[in-house]
Design goal:
Layout (H helix, E strand, L loop, with lengths): L2 H28 L6 H35 L1
Helix pairs in contact: 1-2
Length: 72
């Protein structure tokens, strides 16, 4: 994987986290709806999945950085 691709993927994950938070805020506060399964699924399972992807991408980015240091 290229480093630029990893950076875009990390940015995409951060945007996805922000979208999940905005979705919950809109449903709970603006539309005055109660907590239901869709909010729980998006926030709990979605956050966990995105966090796992972020951890993987961060590790991959650091591995590429270390590999670059050893090549020089």
């Amino acid at each position: 994987m290229k480093r630029g691709t990893i950076r875009y993927a990390i940015a995409g994950c951060i945007v996805a986290l922000a979208a999940a938070v905005i979705y919950a805020i809109v449903r709970l506060y603006i539309l005055s709806q109660r907590v239901d399964s869709s909010i729980l699924l998006v926030n709990v399972i979605g956050f966990a999945a995105i966090a796992i992807v972020l951890i993987y991408l961060t590790k991959k980015d650091k591995d590429l950085e270390e590999e670059k240091l050893f090549r020089d």
